[in-house]
Amino acid sequence: MKQNEAPKLSIIVPVYNVEKYLDKCLTSIEMQTYPDFEVLMIDDGSTDSSGKICREREQRDSRFRYFYQPNQGLGPARNKGIELARAARIMFIDSDDWVDITIVEKLLPVSINTDADAVFCDFWAVFPDGEKRTVPIRSLFQLINASGEERMHYSVQRSLWSVVYKRDIWVDNHLLMPDIIYEDTAVYGMLLCYLKNVVTISEALYFYRAQREGSLMQIGRKDYRNMLKALDYFLKGAQTHNLFNRYSDDFFRYCVRQLGIEWKKSKKSLPENELTDVKKNITELLSNYFPKWTKKNISGFMALGSFVSCEVYYRMTLFCDPQKENYSFTSLESLMSDELSQTCCQFRNTNPYRTEMVIKDLKKTWKRQLSACKYIILDLLEERHDLIKYENSYITKSEAFDEVCILREKYQVIPRRSTECRNIWMESCDQFFHKMRNENIQVFILELYLCENKGLRGKEAVFENIEEIREINKELRFYYEYIKHSATVVTLISRREEASFSGTDYPYGCFPWHYNEMGIFVLAEEIYEKLNTKEADI
User: Fold this and answer.
1) CB neighbour class for 294 (10 Å; exposed up to 12, middle 13-18, buried from 19)
2) Of 200, 109, 204, 103, which Cα lies nearest the Cα of 151?
3) Residue 430 in 3-state DSSP?
4) What angle do CA 39, 41, 45 make, to 5 degrees?
5) Residue 399: pLDDT band by 50, 70, 90 thresholds?
6) 369 or 171, which is more confident?
7) Within its chain, how far is the Cα of 129 from the centroid?
8) In contact, 270 and 221? CB cutoff 8 Å
9) Given CA atoms 24, 29, 31, 32 in this order, what sign does their dihedral have?
10) Which residues partner with 358 through β-bridges?
11) What would the pLDDT profile of 265-290 be if each residue is shown by its tens digit?
12) What is the sign, positive or negative, of the torsion defined by CA atoms of 406, 408, 413, 416?
């Protein structure tokens, strides 16, 4: 690149008190195999040696340009970078992350040759213990020519880095990031509406430092108010940009999905009195922008079955006020059997949530909650596990049970795909639905199966244990068909094509987890719609 000639790419690096990580970030950029770029280091009022590191880099490499501004936040620092950029294409790299030395070479020519509005690549999530996971960002754009609303439907990931954008997309549409945490969420929904030509690269070229202590994202996870501010900014911007009326329904789903994630975090970390305020603030935000939507005063929910039912239950709390009980990692056989004392078990000090669920499975405490229960969300995914017969009771030999619990005395294991287990299940099923009829409880059955393929849709590969998975699914199919023909208090919700629920940590399921989030919200919305119909008939 000649001295006065505009570079092909402007790389924007916002910098704030990252002296520990900055050199690695800048070095990974300096070493790029494609040399025609500039780096805009926007120092947002650092008080450590970050500014010095930037100035030294500027002195030794003319492609690096250093700018200082009083502390305004990550969003304004990126905005400044967009303003100063001389290239027709820009890229954001956070100063505590780093990139593969070929990222520019692999993204920029594609952007130029295809005239793409944005070129995305996968990225690595790098955890403090050194573990790395690939995150296929292209899942958001599995339909290359998808509309903005379709992309929002698939979008949970909202990070702005690891992408080469046309600068004009930002400038011509007046996209500015605010001085708040989740500044990317505040513009991401609008950005998706403006991206017409999107290309994806099937390679992880960006290294995201996940769960870094002291990072803005870590701080933000503790405060749902930041998400409310970001979504308020987003919705105001959508109105200003004349996008709101066109995409209103899609914006609603986008907001609900983001809030659902924050609500789940709040449920785990905040005391009950603060949760009331969280729910109130969420309701106010949604009601202000979506007046047709009203939170229904519907209560008396319970979730039974696998972790999926509980995840759907959590999303339901954004639409109504269900009972605060849920039971995962349990089967119908266990639910309908006799209570066991905790003294029969020795508990390992591992996962507190799993321990709580196993104790509930032992004590069958769900029966004590039925007097206040009107609706149950149930799936049968835990019916993939063998049964433990102990005295006159059954326990689900789930992954949670194996992780946290050891029985002190002798017990019998009943294989899942045995005639004995099927007979026990049918008897338990009949007892369960007889009880539901007597208690006048409506059951929403989520007809879910194990995924037979792993990987991205369209590029799936079968699991190595595919025959086992198919045998389990065959058994599950028998269970669901049995319920369809014998139960009268059931609303069946079949699995959607996109509803894959297990992430990378589980042996059965699709990757990436974006599909999981989308599928769970789809199920929650469908239950809510059916629930509204039923409540209206009462």
Assistant:
1) exposed
2) 200
3) helix
4) 175
5) confident
6) 171
7) 22
8) no
9) positive
10) none
11) 777 777 777 877 887 888 888 889 98
12) negative
Phi/psi zone of residue 211: left (φ > 0), alpha (ψ -120 to 50 degrees), beta? left
pLDDT at 27: 97
Q: Going from the N-terminus, what domains does the chain have, and what CATH number goes with each? A: 10-209 (3.90.550.10), 221-287 (no CATH), 301-537 (3.40.50)
Pull the structure tokens for residue 471: 């045998």
Residue found by looking up tokens 């030794």 in the block: 60
| Spatial separation of the C-alpha atoms in residues 355 and 531, rounded to whole Å | 32
Backbone angles phi, psi at 341, to 5 degrees: -80, 145
Pull the structure tokens for residue 99: 């990139």
- 196 contact partners, CB below 8 Å, separation of at least 6: 117
**Which residue would you say has higher pLDDT here, 159 or 43?**
43
Q: How high is the pLDDT of residue 143? A: 36
Q: Which amino acid is at 337?
A: S
The pTM (predicted TM-score) of the whole model is 0.73
Distance CA 339, CA 359 (A): 10
pLDDT at 321: 64
Nearest to 468 by CA among 512, 505, 417, 418: 417
